Amino acid sequence: MPLKRNSTSATSASEAPTITQAAIKKFIVDSVTAALEARAATMANTSNLTGTPVLLELLYAKENKVTFATGTLIDDVLSWWNAYAQPMGVDQANKITWTELKRLLTNKYYPQTNVRKMEEELYNLIVKGNDLKTYVRRFQ
Q: pTM of the predicted model, to two decimals?
């Protein structure tokens, strides 16, 4: 059953207050600013998971960097890591330094000849005209 109006309104649509675009924009800016300030205040007073960089620093501390990185390996790189870590044990393998892990991965998957070739290409790279798309595409 449709609702019925009990009384007629004294004000018509033409008598309603008008609002300008500038007033709408100011209202939006003020609302967003207030919301951001409230969020910043809330985040400063809590130690929850969202937006707390201190927790992330604890979870992914420098001493856990190798463990975290090797936990993200997939496919043949993961197989290589498992073959590397198995003889000494995963706990011992995760104790290698970050620099050592980078060196191992570079030696295995990017031989020095390829590194030299890419360095030489980078040093001799020339942009032809204004064709920046081709220049950028080479490194994507």
A: 0.43
